[in-house]
Specification:
Helix content is 7%, strand content 46%. It contains one helix and 13 strands, in the order αβββββββββββββ. Strands 9-13-12-11-10 form a five-stranded mixed β-sheet, with no helix packed on it. Strands 1-2-3-4 form a four-stranded antiparallel β-sheet, with no helix packed on it. Strands 5-6-7-8 form a four-stranded antiparallel β-sheet, with no helix packed on it. It is globular. The protein starts with a helix and ends with a strand.
Length: 184
Amino acid sequence: MKSLLLPALLTASLALPCLAAPFDQTLDGGGFSVRITSPNKPEKNTVTLQPDDLKSTNEKITVSTESPVTRAFLADMDGDNSPEVFIVLTSPGSGSYGDVLAYSTNGKKSLTPIVIEKPSEKDLTGYMGHDEFEVMENTFVRRFPVYKSGDTNAAPTGGYRQFQYKLKAGEAAWQLKIDRVESY
């Protein structure tokens, strides 16, 4: 009887979505801290930010997202001793498509979203995921491998494309604007 149940159990487990572990990290820097949590559910996921040490408001922020949180970090892109918060989201599956949520601490007074400019369709030619995100020398960087026609997901042959963003003050919100696109 056990041998009959085992194949059924294996088949049932293969149908389940890939589950990421819950995310819970506290980031500290520049006299500011924020706890970032996410249940990392496969559907209707959320990300919660609980800031601490802000001057005006430390209200909890919860946003919906389709992808699980895989990383979070602080950076002070404009050198004002008021860090920005970056939350990296990575879709499950072989593509590992990446996205980022970013927040400004507004002079350590309040936490507000930063609008991130989307790349053009042309600049996304050959994109199949596997994004990397980092802040280097006051520049937010998004990099991914470029796939040529016929490439498998595990073997890109088109080099890399990199977007370099600068933090700019907008009318209603801070913005990360594409400053430069490089392929190599």
